[in-house]
Give the backbone structure.
Amino acid sequence: MDYLNARLGAIFNRGLVNVIIAFSATLFCCSTFAQSETIAFESLSPEVQDTLSPFADNWDKINLRRQKTLVKISQEADPDMRKRIKRHANHWKGLPKEERKKVRKTMRKFENLPPHKREKLRQHWNNMPAEKRRIIDRTFDHYEQLPAQ
């Protein structure tokens, strides 16, 4: 018992307590700082809150960069586009986890394409007749209306 007391005394005398306190304070400060590095959902305008309402439950878990992007897109969108954004976000939330993984994988493939190939795909979409793009959009909108599996 004397050995244990002597050993603990030596550890504490070497400043372990100070290290633990400093480490705890650092963790606390970092977590507080990280939490403050988000946009408060309540601070958004009512229109943007409505558009982004599908994200409200997890808003504080979304990183700041993505929050800013979502807010900017929502602010710049016309009322019809806001409705569409909200509908798509609700659909996304309803997708099974495996479907979301597939979509993310496809998006990563697109993002990893060389810039000239991405541009070629964008040009193909933009050069597509408006009616054909509307058909694709309507097909996607119809797909969104299907019940989640």
